[in-house]
Amino acid sequence: MTTTAPSPVTEVTDDTFAAEVLASELPILVDFTASWCPPCRMIAPVLAEIAAEESGRLRIVSLDVDTNPVTQAAYGVMSMPTLLLFRAGAPVKVLVGARPKRRLLQELAGEF
C-alpha cells in the first residue's frame, strides 16, 4: 500500500482567511483558484513544488473562488489563477495567470 504525503499547499476559506493569511508571520502566497480553470490545474503542481522547497520561508495556500466569494470580492480577483503575495497581513504583489516554475520564482525573487 502506498501513501501520499499531504500537500504542502493548504486550503483556506472565507472563514479561515484572516487567521491563516493575514495573521501569518511568514510571507504567504494565496492561489485564487477554481476547479473548472485549466490554467489553475497547470500551476497547482508548480505551487506544490515551491511550497515544499521554500517551507520555512514562504507558505502557499489556495482559495477556491467558487466557494469563497467574500475573500475573492474583497481583493478584486477577477481572473483565475491569481496569486497574491501577502506580507505582514497586506498584499504586496499580484500575479495573474499560470506560469512556469522558473518564471514564477524570478517574479517572486526578493519578496520572501
From TrEMBL:
InterPro entries: Thioredoxin, Thioredoxin-like_sf, Thioredoxin_CS, Thioredoxin_domain. Pfam families: Thioredoxin. PROSITE patterns: THIOREDOXIN_1, THIOREDOXIN_2. Signal peptide: none annotated. Residues 1-112 form the Thioredoxin domain. Keywords: Disulfide bond, Electron transport, Redox-active center, Transport. NCBIfam families: thioredoxin. Belongs to the thioredoxin family. This is Thioredoxin. It comes from Streptomyces polygonati. The lineage of its organism: Bacteria, Bacillati, Actinomycetota, Actinomycetes, Kitasatosporales.
